[in-house]
């Protein structure tokens, strides 16, 4: 598989992860972004040793979107520092079943992960393992059945956007874990009903060496069909 690389220099690599490909997998028979990108780096290098590539942040396997990787330990350390302190600008678009009652709002919840089922749920703050989950959403289109929202992720919890939007009463179309909703045959949208309609379309951070603010964005016209 040829990776879709948006930017690469000696320190970082920014790429578009396809839906259905995990960022990193323990299954040797299953391709993941780390192995795909390492193969790319090996093919481009004359060095015999395996290339260095650090995972900085992740996307759920069914989610398509933009990722940045560190190509040196120093770059990875700085990117991780940003992620844990200032935070990255992580922006998503989602197609929801229904329209939020409040068209633009910030959501603050507590989420706990169940490792046995690989799911998360909204919980009380004093629940063991509970973590604060925050995001801001803005409705940009809606009709009687669906709405399109833009989401800025403040925290990065397990399945956070999927859990919080489902808890709001507007699950993401195609989400088999947190909603059973798909696009009906009489809808004019061209979304494939079996695919999770969540896309990480924009990523912002500061270059770990040059300190230059970077913004990578892919304009997905198919998220504006409502």
UniProtKB/TrEMBL annotation:
InterPro entries: PsdUridine_synth_cat_dom_sf, PsdUridine_synth_RsuA/RluA, RluA_PseudoU_synthase. It catalyses: a uridine in RNA = a pseudouridine in RNA. One of its GO terms (molecular function) is RNA binding. GO terms for biological process: enzyme-directed rRNA pseudouridine synthesis. It comes from the Bacteria. Residues 12-167 form the Pseudouridine synthase RsuA/RluA-like domain. Gene3D superfamilies: Pseudouridine synthase. CDD domains: PseudoU_synth_RluA_like (cd02869). Belongs to the pseudouridine synthase RluA family. This is RNA pseudouridylate synthase. It comes from Mediterraneibacter hominis.
């Amino acid at each position: 598989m040829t990776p879709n690389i948006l930017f690469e220099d000696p320190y970082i690599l920014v790429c578009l992860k396809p839906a259905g490909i995990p960022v990193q997998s323990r299954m040797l028979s299953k391709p993941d972004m780390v192995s795909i990108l390492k193969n790319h780096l090996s093919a481009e290098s004359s060095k015999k040793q395996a290339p260095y590539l650090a995972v900085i942040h992740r996307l759920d396997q069914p989610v398509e979107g933009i990722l940045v990787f560190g190509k040196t330990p120093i770059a990875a350390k700085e990117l991780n520092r940003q992620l844990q302190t200032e935070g990255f600008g992580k922006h998503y678009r989602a197609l929801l079943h229904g329209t939020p009652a409040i068209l633009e709002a910030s959501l603050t919840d507590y989420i706990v992960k169940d490792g046995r089922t690989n799911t998360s749920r909204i919980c009380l703050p004093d629940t063991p393992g509970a973590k604060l989950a925050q995001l801001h959403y803005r409705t940009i289109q809606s009709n009687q059945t669906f709405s399109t929202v833009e989401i800025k992720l403040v925290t990065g919890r397990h399945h956070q956007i999927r859990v919080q939007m489902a808890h709001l009463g507007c699950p993401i179309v195609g989400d088999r874990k947190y909603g059973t909703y798909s696009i009906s045959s009489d809808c004019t949208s061209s979304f494939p009903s079996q695919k999770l309609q969540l896309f990480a379309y924009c990523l912002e951070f500061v270059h770990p060496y040059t300190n230059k603010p970077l913004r990578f964005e892919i304009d997905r016209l198919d998220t504006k069909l409502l």
